Amino acid sequence: xxxxxxxxxxxxxxxxxxxxxxxxxxxxxxxxxxxxxxxxxxxxxxxxxxxxxxxxxxxxxxxxxxxxxxxxxxxxxxxxxxxxxxxxxxxxxxxxxxxxxxxxxxxxxxxxxxxxxxxxxxxxxxxxxxxxxxxxxxxxxxxxxxxxxxxxxxxxxxxxxxxxxxxxxxxxxxxxxxxxxxxxxxxxxxxxxxxxxxxxxxxxxxxxxxxxx
Length: 213
Hints:
- The chain is α+β, with helices and mostly antiparallel strands.
- Helix content is 17%, strand content 30%.
- The chain contains five helices and eleven strands.
- The protein has helices at residues 24-28, 63-66, 114-123, 127-134, 141-150; strands at 3-12, 15-19, 35-40, 43-48, 50-53, 56-61, 72-79, 172-177, 180-185, 188-190, 202-205.
- The chain has a seven-stranded antiparallel beta sheet with strand order 4-3-7-1-2-6-5.
- Strand 1 (3-12) and strand 2 (15-19) form a beta hairpin.
- Helix 3 packs across helix 4 (127-134).
- The longest helix has 10 residues, at 114-123.
């Protein structure tokens, strides 16, 4: 089913979104990270909706697309089974992932490619390999999850939004704070020199050895 509405552009830091003005859970019967095909002001693209809690969702918009949209855009979206931009020709599946995550080989996270670096450490591959799959544009939650799907790496169906509050970190996760993505595994951050307790904006749990989806 296709859902149509007028959506307002929202800017959060260097990211742009369109807020969906209705409860997506109620309208679609779907929850978690929902893959969709979007058309906004006649520009079409695929993405995963960004959950904000209680059925409220945002559509993430790339900078190049955002620059072409009106402040109030004509928007439609249709839920799809999976995204096709990255993982359509993957040799991996959730049942046959690239590897079992039981350890991390540390790689320095590079500004602008910190999301790529987190995926590289999780998949156990070089950053250049992830750049070929994920592209050389700045990372986003949507593209990170697509690339995790490509490598067959399972992750939690819902993200955590601590809103700056202290919480129990998962055994393994990708966290977002201070304008970048960081990888946490078994009690410490990898690829970054971090001290203290950062104010985490969002966190995506990654399933590791012995975990179940």
